Structures are given as structure tokens and as C-alpha cells.
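Model it.
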Amino acid sequence: MTKEFYLKHHTFHIKAIFAVLKDVFEKNVYADKAIEKVMKANKYWDVKERGFVSDISYDMVRNWRLLFISAGMEPNAKLVDKNLWMIFGTYLVFDGYTLPESNYFKGLNEKKIVSQLQKFHKIRKIRESVPDWLDELGEKELGKDWDKIIRSLNQKPTTILRVNTLKTNTKELQQLLEVEKITDTSSIIWSPDAIELKYPRNVFRTEAFHKGLFEVQDASSQMVSEFLNVQAGMRVVDACAGAGGKTLHLAALMKNKGRIIALDVKEKKLEELKKRASRADVRIVETRPIDSSKVIKRLKDSADRLLLDVPCSGLGVLRRNPDSKWKLNMEEIERVKTIQREILTNFSDITKVGGKMVYATCSILPSEGEEQVKWFLKLAGDKWNLVGEKRYSPEVYHADGFYMALLERMK
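Modeled.
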């Protein structure tokens, strides 16, 4: 169904989009939670209706600054329905549609909108809809590459699956998905367990998902576990495991042999990890909440491999979380950098002598990646050695932005 059809027959769906926008920009709710809220309130919607509301909500959040200014909004304009209809009309023009005849768009001049869009296309921070401070920071840290990187991060992401190699393989999973009418999938050369979906689908309803044959995980994120170079039978610690996407991948790479200790400060996330591990038939993971410093001390000198997928700004995953650029600020980035250094300092000795550690962030900023590793190596002296590092930049790999460094403990 076209946008014109929904405008003519289903203004209710557009009102739902407005509810999302109000939650995101007035109540500071995360976009995924705001969308989840309207979906729960409209359980009778079919797949197309859900896709329409979700896709446009994300697209408008992604391009909010450009749409807001091009609609002629004053900086402090309230998000009343009248203004939201003006912004929505601007979005239609931005997305290549001719404005339909409607009282909702009174006051909007299509030619003026086009003129404004062309004008602001020359101004990067407005064209890519980022705050001034972020545009300045990106240029400062990334120089001439910032323009290409932020443009890539402002694109709609694709759905990427990680094949659970404990149960299946890439080719077999693609065949099983075809039976469930998910076609046009392709493998990704540089990420061996990744499958890309050409068209977005609700893969969580598939039989293949419920059988634990795959997880949803970006291709560059998958490479973090690959970079740790684990082997079957090893003792591995995932110190910032969260809900366990990388933990489960490590278990598959280890062929379910050995032991993985998954740590996190949030016990609720570890409970989710247990459920996912059960579905994936992962049997080598033990979860431990970090409820005191003793948890880390007891693990000292014990791990063949240590993964530190540390908290970060999340600037590498703006494609998936476009609202986060409006929730971030410099103070928060400085705060997470301090946390990163604390984790490196306090957790690194979990690795035994001769063992290896990966430090990883889903950030595009060198100050959260390369510079943090340099700082740690200087602090550690000859105790640690840098084996190698890799950066997956979004404009090169058309994936989330990730940095990872592999270090070996020498003493």
C-alpha cells in the first residue's frame, strides 16, 4: 500500500506515528520503545500496517532536523498535531511524493519545501540531521572521512542474521527461510556466519528462529567474536555480556566445548541470555552478575580469552538507533570513556599470562577505540602487547561501525 493510500484511508496510522514522535522528542523515550508501545496498543494491525508505522517513524526520526527546519518550524515549536502534519507533509516531499490535496497540509508550499531541502542539502549537520556538537566532534576526530561516515550512518539498515552453526549452516538456513517465504537472502563474504535479508521481515515469528537456528546480529558485530580467535575447550570470559549476542557466537565458534563465563552488571540481561542459550542449544555458558568487586577478583589469571565489549557512545549503530544522536551529549561521551578505562584497568587481569583479550566498541570515534588502547598499553608497560586491531567503518562495509583490538598478556 502506498503512502497516499494511508493518508486517504488511514490517518489513524499517521496519528500513531505522531505519538511515536512525541514520545521520542518530548518525553525522551527511546524510538524502539515508543514504536513497541503503539504496536501493543494496536495488536490487530497486520504486517504491512506495522511496517508502515515503524518504517516511517524511524525515517522521520533519522531525518528530523532536516524535516523540522524545511517545514518552516520555529526552533521551539511544540509538537501539536497541526505542526506534526506540516512536518509529515515535508517528509512526503522529501521522500519523493507529491503532496495530496488535504486540509492537513494547509500552509505548506511544495515548491518552497523543495527549495528548502535543496538549500539545506549543502549544510551537512542539517542534511544528515545531527546536533551541532556531534558534527563538530565528528569532523575533529575523523576529518574528511566524517562526511562519508555520517552519510552512511543516516541510511536505513538491513536485517542481518547470524547463523547458529551448532545447528545449521548458511546454505541450509537460506533454504529453510525460503520455505517460510523469506527469499532474496545473501551471504556476506567478509562475515562468514552472516546472512543479509534484502527486504525487512519479522523473522522472530519464523519456525527457524524458534528452533534457534539464527540470531539477529549485524555483520560487523559478529566479527568481534571471530577476532577473539577462540578454540574448543578454552576457558573464556565475556565480561560485558549483556543479553549475550556475542556470548552465543563464541559458544558456536567453540563448538559447545569448553566454558564461557558471562558477566554483566544487569542481572535481567543475563536472564535473557539464559533463555537465548537454551533456544540455541548452547550448553557451556555460566552467567554471573557483577554485584561486587569480588566477582572480578575471583577470576584473576583464569581466562584463555577475555572479551571486553565495553559500554560506549553507540555512534557506530546510529542506523539502528537514530534517536540516540538527540539523547547523547559530550558529557555522556566523556563519562563512557572513563568507564572504558576503568574496565580495561580492572578487568584485564582476568586473562592469564599468554592469554588474549579483545577490547571492542560500537563507536566510530578513535577516542573510544584506538586512543583508549594506546592509553592502556602505555599504562601496562611490557605486560601487554597489541597483536592487531580492526575497524569496520560503516561507509566501507555498509554495516554498523565497530572497532576491535586483540591484545596478548605477556606477564
